[in-house]
């Protein structure tokens, strides 16, 4: 029996069996006395009762006015705070499923994420065969896991020398797998994108080695086939302003936006971590780009903490912080993603590192950070009508907290209970 996550009943805790998840769920129940953090309206609504029916929030009432039917079981969490389940907008679960990302290891990673209040993830390129399977198992609650949405990757043909692409497409020639495709100006984009969609992908990730004309063609075709487009903020040689102008839905990695200030951009992504001697946050090109991103409603998947971890002595983190701060000042929508390969499952999830960096270094207000990790990340996925906020009719993906995170974002870790698809998990 595992002691990591336990399903909470009204009377007892039922232990999960590590090799066969015991599904337990109250059909209808009420959570009484909680303070709801309303991410849509940036406020706290005190002393509320949430009624959960199956996996949906079916009612929200002032607790003083709530008349409980005899058939409903009640859970008293008076004085606690409830937020929508967190969404990590940038994970990698399946780079190499035949080895380090095997099923048993990945199940432990997913359980760890759920234990940390993450009820949904966006995977940003891996083996779609494996991701599709994991996504289905998670949606059926056959594994203890966040819900999983994933991308197919398009890049210039030169990019597929990268060994990671070979690991994620085993059985195919590099750049020829439907979920990891190299393209050129003569590629049949309609067919390629249709095949990518057929893998179960929610969006296309545009990675590198593409010019602005080809990026725009990809975006137009993907949107015509009702796929989201998630791009690196610099695609090399397409610069950030050109990526944004193409109509992408999300731009990942604030640090890469630093290339907007350079006179020349390399033709490929191999030099993307190079120190930029010309970086100046006061360059009007950056201000212009942020205004354009705001107007086009492009979401910035900042991922600044990954650069702090990987390059602690470099300027890359400083670029990311400065540019994310400028985006925030210009009211660009900022999501919360980690781009972290999970290795240590004994410490708090990487999403909390990202949230701390956004508060401490970017100086974002905690409510805006929480919005980034919930409703804005839901918008990235095109799922904002289903998840990301606490509203009647939305999925019961919730976190019950002991303390309010609206003063110190670190209190987002004070998790008492995680609810995913209406099921309750005690994290102690």
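^ structure tokens above, recovered residues below v
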């Amino acid at each position: 029996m595992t002691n990591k996550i336990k399903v909470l009943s009204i009377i007892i805790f039922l232990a999960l069996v590590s090799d066969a998840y015991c599904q337990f769920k109250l059909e209808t129940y009420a959570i009484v006395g909680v303070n709801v953090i309303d991410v849509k309206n940036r406020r706290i609504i005190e002393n509320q009762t949430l009624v959960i029916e199956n996996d949906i929030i079916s009612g929200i009432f002032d607790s003083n006015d709530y008349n409980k039917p005899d058939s409903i079981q009640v859970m008293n969490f008076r004085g606690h705070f409830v937020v929508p389940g967190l969404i990590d907008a940038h994970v990698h679960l399946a780079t190499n499923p035949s080895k380090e990302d095997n099923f048993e290891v990945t199940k432990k990673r997913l359980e760890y994420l759920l234990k940390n209040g993450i009820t949904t993830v966006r995977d940003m390129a891996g083996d779609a065969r494996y991701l599709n399977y994991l996504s289905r198992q998670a949606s059926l609650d056959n594994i203890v896991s966040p819900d999983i949405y994933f991308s197919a990757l398009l890049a210039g043909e030169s990019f597929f020398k990268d060994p990671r692409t070979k690991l994620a497409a085993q059985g195919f020639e590099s750049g020829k797998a439907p979920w990891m495709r190299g393209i050129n100006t003569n590629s049949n984009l309609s067919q390629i994108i249709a095949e990518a969609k057929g893998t179960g992908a929610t969006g296309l990730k545009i990675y590198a080695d593409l010019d602005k004309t080809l990026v725009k063609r990809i975006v137009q075709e993907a949107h015509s086939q009702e796929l989201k487009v998630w791009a690196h903020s610099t695609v090399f040689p397409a610069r950030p302003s050109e990526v944004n102008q193409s109509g992408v839905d999300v731009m990942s990695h604030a640090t890469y936006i630093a290339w907007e200030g350079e006179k020349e951009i390399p033709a490929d992504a191999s030099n993307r971590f190079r120190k930029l001697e010309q970086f100046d946050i006061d360059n009007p090109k950056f201000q212009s780009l942020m205004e354009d991103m705001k107007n086009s409603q492009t979401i910035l998947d900042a991922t600044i903490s990954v650069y702090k971890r990987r390059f602690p002595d470099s300027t890359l983190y400083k670029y990311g912080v400065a540019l994310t701060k400028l985006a925030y000042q210009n009211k660009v929508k900022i999501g919360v993603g980690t781009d972290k390969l999970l290795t240590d499952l004994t410490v708090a999830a990487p999403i909390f590192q990202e949230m701390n960096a956004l508060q401490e270094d970017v100086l974002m207000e905690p409510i805006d950070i929480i919005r980034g990790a919930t409703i804005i990340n839901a918008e990235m996925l095109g799922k904002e009508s289903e998840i990301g906020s606490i509203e009647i009719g939305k999925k019961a993906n919730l976190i019950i907290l002991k303390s309010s995170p609206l003063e110190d974002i670190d209190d987002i870790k004070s998790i008492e209970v995680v609810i995913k698809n209406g099921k309750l998990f005690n994290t102690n």
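The longest strand covers residues 28-38.
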